[in-house]
Amino acid sequence: MCLTCLIFIICSNYIHADNESFQATCDQQCIFNEISVNTETLKLFPINCSTVCGYLQLSSDSNVTEDQLTTVFKNMKKFYGLVEIVSTPSNELFVFKNNHENLTSNPSVCLRIKQSLNTTAWHIPMIDGKSCEEIEEVAAEKDSSGEGNGRFIAQMLALFLFYYAPKVI
Length: 169
Known about the structure:
- This protein folds into 2 domains: 1-97, no CATH class; 101-164, no CATH class.
- It is built from 6 helices and 3 strands.
- It has helices at residues 20-25, 39-42, 66-73, 107-117, 132-145, 152-164, and strands at residues 31-32, 51-59, 78-86.
- Helix 4 runs parallel beside helix 6.
- InterPro entries: SPS2_domain (IPR053079).
- Residues 1-17 form the signal peptide.
């Protein structure tokens, strides 16, 4: 069965759950303490929180549907922690809309997600309706105007090496 995952990565900050700043970021009721997302752990998700902290792992073992994820995550506007995509057979990527501006200007996000999805299709993923190519263009414009973070060349090099490296089957 092919799993179509709703992948949301909203301004992911890599902060360890035991870190004081992680605990200070979210109300205690808004911390998701489970890692693997499945039908049982999804029942524990803090559905009334607009800001959630935790670690989420979506994998081929995740037995949740896109509709279930959409329903549970509908109130969330920001997620602090780590979202990990592991061995999903899906080539589709659905992301929450209009709540993660930083994501749509960071081309390395597309690269990481593409590697996780194990696909060479450049139009995947779509983040807020933008393809990886469009995100690269935004980053290039920001870099050339001085708005960017100066890492675009390194990210392009990583993309080039990933995309053109020989595939080992």
